[in-house]
């Protein structure tokens, strides 16, 4: 495989690069390093099968150039994290809409296989127990910037799907449900690295709302082999596939697990949504994937338990900053 990974310097992208290189593939990363970092890829620097191109997916010529010699495109670049989306709505929209269009267009022109990373956010406020891929979207007002990520990712899916239908582009749409693991930063919202960072620093653990909202955290190490397998499975083309974990936890319960596993003396502090994200923020009460489709297509079965996932993040953060006074990422 000669693969291009957009967003390859990010959390999920860098693990994908590690996996592809370890399996003998050639990898070219296109990343503007806005939320990703070169540190995530330092283990690959100097590898003759690996190259990092620093640039934006909004640069159409660059995108075409980078994709011109590959056979597979994993499109993971996006403006991510609730704080990014709420603080920079226009920039996020541009990246997530026009960026994807540029990448899918170049992949189609090249005749490369294409995968776009989508998100459980596309289900919006639908909190059905076990969301299947054909579940309805329940989105709030399009004028609330909070929903712009869900709106843009929904359109990304549609653009990829229509390209697939009209041009025969082999395309896979993966919907990630709260994927977490080492290298993920809490700087832009993601709750697990935030809580771990806070616990290691002895700072209050900031639970937003009353903490009864529930999530199902999936391990990056479970989903990476699945992403690659889906790309190699024609039955997965031109459809959306959920990927995530199966162990559900309340956010309050997560905070308690993090405190226990770090041995921290941090207390839990409840923060209103308004103070956390600004006025009018709407959180999803529950988001739980049904992964039967991935199970049927590629035998997907998440293996990692929540405690192990949290443990791997604690280990990574401790290694990053060995002193007991760790600054929150
Ligand atoms: N959250 C929290 N404290 C934080 C960051 C997030 O309580 O410091 C909550 C957030 O409101 C949501 C859940 O944790 O209910 C998961 O947030 P994240 O941004 O990781 O993912 P989301 O599911 O919102 O996409």
Automatic annotation (TrEMBL):
Domain NAD-dependent epimerase/dehydratase: 4-244
Protein EC: 5.1.3.2
GO biological process, one term: D-xylose metabolic process
Domain of life from the UniProt record: Bacteria
Keywords: Decarboxylase, Isomerase, Lyase, NAD
Cross-referenced Pfam families: Epimerase
The keyword NAD belongs to this UniProt entry's keyword annotation: yes
SUPFAM superfamilies to which the protein is assigned, alphabetical: NAD(P)-binding Rossmann-fold domains
GO molecular function, one term: NAD+ binding
Named cofactor requirement(s): NAD(+)
GO cellular component labels: cytoplasm
Top-level class of the enzyme under EC nomenclature: isomerase
PANTHER family, sorted: UDP-GLUCURONIC ACID DECARBOXYLASE 1, UDP-GLUCURONIC ACID DECARBOXYLASE-RELATED
Protein name in the entry: UDP-glucose 4-epimerase
UniProt source species: Spinactinospora alkalitolerans
